[in-house]
Amino acid sequence: MPIATVNPANGETLKTYEPMGEEEVERRLRLAQATFRTYRTTVFADRARWLSKAADLLDEDRQEIGRVMTVEMGKPIKQSRAEAAKCAKAMRWYAERAERLLADEEPAETDVRDSGASRVRVRYRPLGPVLAVMPWNFPLWQVVRFAAPALMAGNVGLLKHASSVPQTALYLEDLFHRAGFAEGCFQTLLVGSAAVDGILRDERVMAATLTGSEPAGRAVATTAGEMIKKTVLELGGSDPYIVMPSADLDRAAEVAVTARVQNTGQSCIAAKRFIVHTDVHDAFAERFVEGMEALKVGDPLQEDTEVGPLASEQGRTDLEELVDDAKRSGAEVLCGGARPDGPGWYYPPTVLTGVTRQMRVHREEAFGPVATLYRAGDLDEALLIANDTPFGLSSNVWTRDTDEVERFAEDLEAGAVYVNGMTASHPAFPFGGVKRSGYGRELSGHGIREFCNITTVWQGA
């Protein structure tokens, strides 16, 4: 894939970039290693000042970078600006809290004495240069939720962003430099995916984080395993959205629409499989379909657009094939289900019912505004359907029954359970999945410690 900005609303190539050659990549790796030697000794107050400045600059740039993201990957413009604001919030969250989150820990005095020590401390020390392989769907947020904690922990970052969002990738490097971070603290590598393996094998790269597809995660995990390097992987998701009889049905249906089509449905944590108790299934389905049909699909630069184009032509083709396979196998289309005429990579909000385990859309992630609707006879069947997936990123449950809440919280196979609300990432809460959705956690105190050397300091009497 060329490194280029291609407007998904019309297919026009706006800007292309030459990939960095081996010499430039080598220069940046040397710079990252050299910068880390000094950056790791900086104090939290300096790191926090620079990161807070980056947040201020991002707020100032919100209109401009929002438009860049929309033009590069088709996100509705209001959502682009909201993404920039969310990134600034996360930067400030870590700037204010990192020192406390990484403070030395003192084990219980009885354990210290039992070990024969006079004092024991657990320290969190940075690892070094970390390679971040990031996707196009949240081109700012995916990077910042790695970069903010990594930089506050004293690491330096090397970003290999998706080839379709080069302007956003270069903006991020410039943003951190303008904020006061040394040149080698955060660098963008304009390279293709084929270069990732060699960079990860380089001894100067100490760890890696990847958000993306399952095949990409397997490739990075394989190389990192061979090189014995720490990785955090956030991969696909096919999140269930369960509605039980006690739910506020109007609210559940309203939120369901947003949960499915946020970012034009191109979100790992978007609700994708809607599992509704038979007692309220038909009433929910009527409201849900009505809401999906009412969405405005159009030019993502228009303020009132709710669903834009898919980010790539291949992405639309992949989504279309999932829907067509389901239709051929007997699924019923309640709305949407066919690509529109005209330019751009649009696909309409779609709801499928009558989905069976044999259909690809049941097993695979639908990365676009396509929802599958299931009927469950009781709580046990709802859980059975919800967990019948190779993924386990997040989940959504609508019920006012406290016993049901506890049962879902215990038995759903996912990294998060959101009750009476839709999944959303927040800097204060750990984010990540199980099964083929990956491993490790981003955000919160758990995320900032992922790329730290957790060191025991034992002192004798």
From TrEMBL:
Gene3D superfamilies: Aldehyde Dehydrogenase, Chain A, domain 1 (3.40.605.10), Aldehyde Dehydrogenase, Chain A, domain 2 (3.40.309.10). Residues 3-457 form the Aldehyde dehydrogenase domain. GO terms for molecular function: aldehyde dehydrogenase [NAD(P)+] activity; succinate-semialdehyde dehydrogenase (NAD+) activity. Keywords: NADP, Oxidoreductase. SUPFAM superfamilies: ALDH-like. InterPro entries: Ald_DH/histidinol_DH, Ald_DH_C, Ald_DH_CS_CYS, Ald_DH_N, Aldehyde_DH_dom, ALDH_GabD1-like, GABD/Sad-like. The keyword NADP applies. Belongs to the aldehyde dehydrogenase family. PANTHER family: SUCCINATE SEMIALDEHYDE DEHYDROGENASE [NAD(P)+] SAD (PTHR43217:SF1). This is NADP-dependent succinic semialdehyde dehydrogenase. It comes from Streptomyces pluripotens.
